[in-house]
Amino acid sequence: MLTAERTASGQRRYPDHAVDRVRLVQQLYQAGLSSKTIADLMPCIDANESTPESRARLAAERDRLNRQIAELTATRDRLDAVILASTDPARGCVVRS
């Protein structure tokens, strides 16, 4: 996602604008996108172009996150039920340590 030049000794040298690119990539990671998705979207980002395909890809990622959130919420609700049952044996199963 970053391009660098090499010095004669083999060290990588990045242009000044690479800092902005790193910040953008970090923002995309924080938004839940995978490195593959980010790499796939970079041509559109570089061209400052929004295509139906790039919008569909982003919407699919949002849908994936929504499914994960729903699954985690259901898991938390089940755990809450276990906690409640462990504090009120009349409700059902008792969790013992």
TrEMBL record:
<dbReference type="GO" id="GO:0003700">
    <property type="term" value="F:DNA-binding transcription factor activity"/>
</dbReference>
<dbReference type="GO" id="GO:0003677">
    <property type="term" value="F:DNA binding"/>
</dbReference>
<feature type="domain" description="HTH merR-type">
    <location>
        <begin position="1"/>
        <end position="44"/>
    </location>
</feature>
<keyword id="KW-0238">DNA-binding</keyword>
<keyword id="KW-0805">Transcription regulation</keyword>
<protein>
    <submittedName>
        <fullName>DNA-binding transcriptional regulator, MerR family</fullName>
    </submittedName>
</protein>
<dbReference type="Pfam" id="PF09278">
    <property type="entry name" value="MerR-DNA-bind"/>
</dbReference>
<dbReference type="InterPro" id="IPR047057">
    <property type="entry name" value="MerR_fam"/>
</dbReference>
<keyword id="KW-0175">Coiled coil</keyword>
<dbReference type="InterPro" id="IPR015358">
    <property type="entry name" value="Tscrpt_reg_MerR_DNA-bd"/>
</dbReference>
<dbReference type="InterPro" id="IPR009061">
    <property type="entry name" value="DNA-bd_dom_put_sf"/>
</dbReference>
<dbReference type="InterPro" id="IPR000551">
    <property type="entry name" value="MerR-type_HTH_dom"/>
</dbReference>
<feature type="coiled-coil region">
    <location>
        <begin position="55"/>
        <end position="82"/>
    </location>
</feature>
<keyword id="KW-0804">Transcription</keyword>
